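User: Some background: our group keeps a shared notebook of sequences we're curious about, and every so often someone picks one and asks for a predicted structure to add to the entry. Today it's my turn. The entry only has the sequence so far, pasted here. Could you supply the structure so I can complete it?
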Amino acid sequence: IASYQARIKSAKSMKQKLTDRGLPVTADSAMSHVRDAAGVRLICPFVQDIDTTADLIRRIPGIQISQEKDYIRSPKPSGYRSYHMIIEIPVFFSNEKRLMRVEVQIRTIAMDCWANIEHQLKYKREIANQALIVQELKRCADEITSTDLSLQTIRELIEAPGKEQFPCVS
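Assistant: Of course. Here's the predicted structure to add to the notebook entry:
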């Protein structure tokens, strides 16, 4: 993991999400219905690291996986790529243990760069020429995917011990 980010949804954002869904604005309602109240984003150098990281998370004692979505192998139409897991992790209070939901997003440095820029440019905005912007963002996402795959190949060539990596040309 090259870096990570963590966040807890603000009370204002939580209230808005519950209100939008027509749910009671209570702590119990939030705990029952909001799956992304807490979030962790794990940024990996290489695509292959994403599967390794997800496997490591699955093996953590006490963790329960309630949902997984693979937007890497099946990207969103926008070009968004990331691996998402909703995990339930035990949290110990003075008088009880409760399972708390946490959204985990795992992506490469390149995927994270694209997602941050796309979010900055589009999120909750009215955009002129939206079709063109969406098309260009998708093109950039595809180029980033190609770059990720090239970097993974370079890594594999470097780490392949004893294999002739570049045949001599006579």
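Suggested note for the entry: The first helix runs from residue 11 to 20. The two ends are 41 Å apart (CA to CA).
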